[in-house]
Amino acid sequence: MADEQKRYRPGTPEYEAWFSQLYEEKYGYPPPPGYFGKSDISSATFGKGWEEMAAPSTNKGEAKPAGGRRAFRPRALKIGYHQDAKLLVIVFRPPTKVDRKNDVERQSGKAPWVVYEEVDAEMWEELKNYHSTGEWLRFSGVESNKYYRVPGDDKAGLTKIVDTLLAK
Predict the structure, then answer these.
(1) Which residue among 5, 35, 58, 168 is the one 20 to 30 A from 66 at the CA level?
(2) Domain co-membership, 8 together with 59
(3) Is the model more confident about 130 or about 60?
(4) Are residue 98 and residue 25 in the same domain, yes or no?
(5) pLDDT tens digit string along 21-30?
(6) How far is CA 50 from CA 33, 34, 41, 98, 123, in A?
């Protein structure tokens, strides 16, 4: 009996297999990468411990007054999730200015990165399968939690936030 208890202790491969099966039975899909606190995943955009993907969007382009459509311009470009820190990061499109005379858009700043705290793995899975990032933010309640812009809007600023939160 003692060996059985050791085998199914959290952190063992047997426990993870057993718990993964329960998770999948309950939610209909397997636990996300890093669910068991392992940060062996990495993202080119956000760094070690982050899972990333293109942000879900319903934006199909905007109608122009003279007919036709403007280019596909979703507000959110990328989303990322850090399991250990329970952080969601969203990279929004850079601000633009429109020269109405020539109908040309120009980038007028850096793409903002916004971090949302207290996002659990279940919420991350929900967002990944949602049709719109903006709608998910409104209806999930995440916007009522703590959120803020990443200093420098880059990987270095994001790493400082994660390191600070994990040190607590």
Answers:
(1) 58
(2) no
(3) 130
(4) no
(5) 888 888 887 7
(6) 10, 9, 6, 34, 15
